[in-house]
Amino acid sequence: MADHLSIFLENKPGKLEKVTHVLADANINIHFISVASLGEFGVIKTIVDKPDIAHKALKEHHFTVSQKKILIAAIDDRPGNLHELLALFSENDINIEDCYGFPIKEQGKVGIVIEADAYPKIETVLASHHIHCIDLNEIT
Amino acid sequence: MFWEKEIETISSSDLKKLQLIKLHHTIEKAKKSDYYKKILKKTKISTLKDIESLPFTSKQDLRDHFPYGLLAEDLTESVRLHSSSGTTGNPTVVFHTKEDIELWADLVARCMYMTGVRKHDVFQNTMGYGLFTGGLGFHYGAEKLGMLTIPVGPGNSKRQIWFMQQFSTTAVHILPSYAIHLYSSFQELSLDPKKDTRLKTAFIGAEPHTNALRVQIENLYGIKAYNSYGLSEMCGPGVAFECPQQNGMHIWEDHFYVEIIDPKTGQILPDGEEGELVLTTLKRSAMPLIRYRTRDLTRIINEPCLCGRTHRRIERIKGRSDDMLIINGVNIFPMQIEQTVMQFPGVGNNYRIEILKENHMDRINVLIEVHEEIFNGTLSKLDQLKNQIIEALKSECGVTPKVKLVEPESLPINEGKAVRVFDMRRNEEE
Ligand SMILES: [Zn+2]
Questions:
Q1: Any bridge partners for residue B241, and if so which?
Q2: Fold annotation for B330-423
Q3: CATH number at residue A49
Q4: Which of chain A's residues have a Cβ under 8 Å away from the Cβ of B408?
Q5: Measured between CB atoms, which of B372, B379, B406 is closest to A43?
Q6: What is the average pLDDT score of chain A?
Q7: Distance between CA atoms of B167 and B269, rounded to whole angstroms?
Q8: Can you give the residue range of the structural domain that contains A35?
Q9: Residues A85 and A107 in one domain
């Protein structure tokens, strides 16, 4: 398991840079970052090496932060594979809040980040289909 | 069950006799002030109804005769002043003699005793101390009743909880919005106020709130919450208060003569009709006020109350008569907007409402700071909250607002009795 940090931001110039600045000052390494926005506001999601320290630093700078557990499933990098994974979730009635992927070069695999609520259940489902979940240190 | 049984259950005819005596006394006293000297010169009161021939006193009269114009005693007799902050012009200043302070404390003690708190209770006052009457008013009342009183003052939720736990606080005086906010601090500390405190009573007031919000506070804390009404011009808190029936607030008619008028015409309205509350002090020495227009809109409930008290009740305050806004032709009270926004959990005090003109149309902007209580990390939840607030305001006020979600610390900090509705149209016209 790993941690997702979600940060609420107003959609204004320089806002994203403020977040990366705080993280840089706290000596945090950013593995992934994504921005989703709805017009006047948005949410930044990031995976970092030291989530607890990053959370604290952002809070001290008056950012509103939510920290959540995520799973990173490693699947083979071939067509149709992501579809199979998602079908697996819907068959098992698992609701996914957020999901995106990134390549893991050395292994020829793709890491799929899954944010949801029903973790033990997801882990059981993945394990029964021989899908491996990786740790952050395996990819960095 | 009564602090002062005889007076609280006085018969209507005895109350009228008492009021007439006190009214004579008040008028004689008021004549000593520069302001009332001229107005009351030829006043003859033989029945209570004769009061209707006297002019009203307004907040503006208090401002215009700042600071000593309404003082009816030598200033050396005053031991305290309270003041409401004025955003425009002079503030209103109210003076108190030693006796005024004692009578006020006794009145607040009567209110608190009515809800069932006793000498053995531990009372924590989270209201602001200072010029604002909410803090000191309850403080003196609680001491008069004999409770151990903890003057914590506002803010610092961790410290509030620490005191509640260390000293087994059983009663609190708290802003309803702060009660909701404080609950989230309990959650952060993995505490449940129902199990981890001895709280049983809350006195809530000083800001508008719905009955739904009261019920929410009662359920979160497992307590009873009682509505309190007061205004600094009369003394402060203690003017009217809820009894255990929680159905309207008994307004203490041995201290105040009560009228309800049509705010537009000044016509007196019968019991049961909604209008502006007008009060005459019956016991105050330093600064008696006659037919003071409170600007608060309410209704008198004159049916007998099951608790046995004979003083009539007033309904939860509906709004301020002079605050009414006209937005695209629709009449709206700022309180309606505030109550609607505040009922969303987690929003608490962290909002600001702006009314402005855009392309010759009025529009309402609701700015809400996004704190952790309402942020679970997903965009969709925020969007959902935004839409829920828009829908709620649309059905409550008939106007579609624009809701803006902003970062923490971007709105100005409010303390005490805060104004959160800003009509920017006035500024634009000037
Ligand atoms: Zn009653």
A1: B228, B250
A2: GMP Synthetase; Chain A, domain 3 (3.30.300)
A3: 3.30.2130.10
A4: 62-64
A5: B379
A6: 87
A7: 48
A8: 2-68
A9: yes
Of all residues in chain A, the one with the smallest CA distance to B403 is A40
Q: Are residues A51 and A97 located together in one domain of the fold?
A: no
Distance B210 CA to ligand 1 centre (A): 19
A63 in contact with B, Cβ within 8 Å: yes
What tokens does B332 get?
Answer: 């709206």
Task: Look at residue B429 in the predicted model and tell me its pLDDT.
Answer: 39
How do beta strands B351-358 and B421-423 pair?
parallel
Nearest CA in chain A to B372: A64
Task: Please report how many Cα atoms fall inside a 13 Å half-sphere around the Cα of residue B169, on the Cβ side.
Answer: 28
- pLDDT given at position B177: 79
Q: Which two tokens stand for residue B21?
A: 């005596």
What residue ranges of chain B are covered by domains with CATH 3.40.50.12780?
5-322
Instruction: Give per-residue pLDDT as tens, A13-68.
Output: 888 899 999 999 999 999 888 888 888 899 999 999 999 999 999 999 989 999 98
Task: Give yes or no: residues A94 and A75 share one domain.
Answer: yes
pTM for the full predicted model = 0.70
CA distance B266 to B264: 6
Domain B5-322 has what CATH class? Answer: alpha beta
Residue A80 and residue A53 share a domain = no
Distance B11 CA to ligand 1 centre (A): 15
Cβ distance B405 to A40 less than 8 Å, yes or no, reads yes
Compute the distance between CA of residue A42 and CA of residue A46 in angstroms, rounded to an integer. 13
- Interface check A100 vs B, CB under 8 A: no
Residues of B with Cβ-Cβ distance to A66 under 8 angstroms: 372, 375-377
| Same domain for A31 and A86 | no
Q: Are residues A89 and A31 in the same domain?
A: no
* Residues A36 and A60 placed together within one structural domain of the fold: yes
pLDDT along chain B (430 residues), means of 10: 97 97 96 95 92 94 94 97 72 95 98 98 95 95 98 93 98 90 89 97 86 89 96 96 97 98 93 96 98 94 96 89 76 79 78 84 88 85 91 83 88 60 62
- Give dist(CA B425, CA B419) in Å, integer: 16
ipTM rounded to 2 decimals: 0.79
φ, ψ at B238 (rounded to 5°): 115, -10
Q: Looking at the structure, do residues A93 and A128 belong to the same domain, yes or no?
A: yes
CA–CA separation, B358 and B272 (whole Å): 40
Q: Is A98 in contact with B378 (Cβ distance < 8 A)?
A: yes
Is a pLDDT exceeding 50 seen at residue A110? yes
